[in-house]
Amino acid sequence: MDHPLTTNRRVFLSRTSAGLGTMALAQLLSGDTHGASAGATKHHQLAEPHFAPRAKRVIYLFQSGGPSQIDLFDHKPLLAAQHGQELPPEVRGNQRLTTMSANQPRLSLAHSFFKFSRHGQSGATVSELLPHTAKVVDDLCFIRSVHTEAINHDPAITFFQTGSQIAGRPSIGAWLSYGLGTANENLPNFCVMITKGQGGQPLYSRLWGNGFLPSTHQGVQFRSGRDPVLFLSNPKGMPPNVRRAMLDKLAQLHTLEYKRELDPEIHARIEQYEMAYRMQTSIPEVADVSDEPEHIFDLYGPDAKTPGTFAANCLLARRLAERNVRFIQLYHQGWDHHGSLPRVIPSLCKQTDQPCAALITDLKQRGMLDDTLVIWGGEFGRTSYCQGVLLNDNYGRDHHPRCFTMWMAGGGIKPGIQYGKTDEYGYNVVENPVHVHDIQTTLLHLLGIDHKRLTYKYLGREFRLTDIYGNLVPDILA
């Protein structure tokens, strides 16, 4: 019985003898990848780069919670001179505040308790909390003028990861997987790691989801422990040859279903099964760091041998990058410092500072930094005024979307520069503002993609990562 769809090009092609379904199945059944027999999936690029890429892959070190740029990178001497004074009304203007500080009787300015110094030939200003980052500043591009509309965590994180404050859109890694295809047949194109045991704002799998793109493009989460990827190992009593035979038969059944339903997600499911089959060998190999020399563990720091720590995840990210995984996302929670910031932020920096610097150094010494784009940043910044009561030995900072700092390195980014500028209170951008969509546009550009041309039609509309706006930031390109 015919499927009740109006005949169009896709339906016509799928029903011809050389239709899309037949061609896809032929590809599935023709390839033999690293010992897999008939049924192994071949991965295809859906689009060639629009122009020559500068980067081949991305490692995104996302610091969830909103790191305080005032205490890490954006030194403001005026805050020391006016510590405890009221934030001038003309500086704030009519900007929105969160409900956590909107009703405070005073918005008391709070200077950072930590010392700042200039480092490297670039003279970048970095807090004493980040001594290892300070050693690699000449490889970094600091963007001090990032801004966003989102003022609360979930919409702000969702905005950075998907280009929309509303959940449901594809994530950056999913867009790249869809647009560029894979450069590795045996590992996911998009891998995600979350620092274990680190409390903070919740992270949801939709942040690395595929949205309305085919499910083959969603991120695969790596975990610490014996099974880095859940449900990958064969159950007891299931030898590899039986698993292979099962997948072959399953592919045939799915193909019959596709001919009846014309649902492309059926092919996506076959591809996922096949990828899981290949990952049974590739994942244990990439996760086994026993072949790393001792000086590499020393480079990443004392936590590098403890699976699931940020240091171990940075090392694993480098190993995945070596194997040409397209997009590698690390999440580190705990940067939401509404109170007790001087007591809490040093431990966060101790966990992340050395591994971040080590990743830059490690990639550089292997000749990989030139084509690997590394990004560090959170979903927004923190206020220069204190949330709650300002004490002589304590302060906290509220969410601040109007200006904050990120850094990038490698992959076509100009090293050793500071781009953008905030006012003397660290409250507003006064030079070269960079929006969230500008970050995304520039990221795509470095991978050879015109952000306006990477689209996917869904519910009658052409969607893209940058929605309807976003500008390249050419001044930070090498």
Give the SSE layout.
Blueprint: H1 9-15, H2 20-30, E1 57-63, H3 69-72, H4 77-81, H5 89-92, E2 116-119, E3 124-127, H6 131-135, E4 140-147, H7 153-162, H8 172-180, E5 190-194, E6 220-222, H9 240-261, H10 264-287, H11 294-300, H12 310-322, E7 327-332, H13 341-365, E8 372-377, E9 381-382, E10 399-400, E11 404-409, E12 417-419, E13 421-422, E14 429-431, E15 434-435, H14 436-446, E16 456-458, E17 461-463
Summarize the structure.
The chain has 14 helices and 17 strands. By secondary structure, it is of the alpha/beta class.
Q: Which overall shape is indicated by the principal axes computed on the Cα atoms?
A: globular
Poorly predicted ranges (pLDDT <50, ≥5 residues)? Answer: 1-46
Report the strand count.
17
Terminal-residue CA separation: 59 Å
Strand proportion, as a percent range, falls in 5-15%
| Mean pLDDT across residues | 88
Estimate the helix proportion, in percent.
25-40%
Give the C-alpha Rg.
Answer: 24 Å
Judged by helices, strands and strand pairing, the structural class is: alpha/beta
CATH secondary-structure class: Alpha Beta
Total count of domains = 1
Task: Count helical runs.
Answer: 14
The CATH architecture name reads 3-Layer(aba) Sandwich
Q: At the third CATH level, what is the topology name?
A: Alkaline Phosphatase, subunit A
How does the major sheet shape up?
9 strands, mixed
Explained architecture:
With 478 residues, the chain is of the alpha/beta class. It has helices spanning 9-15, 20-30, 69-72, 77-81, 89-92, 131-135, 153-162, 172-180, 240-261, 264-287, 294-300, 310-322, 341-365, 436-446, and strands at residues 57-63, 116-119, 124-127, 140-147, 190-194, 220-222, 327-332, 372-377, 381-382, 399-400, 404-409, 417-419, 421-422, 429-431, 434-435, 456-458, 461-463. It has a single domain (55-468), classed as Alkaline Phosphatase, subunit A, CATH 3.40.720.
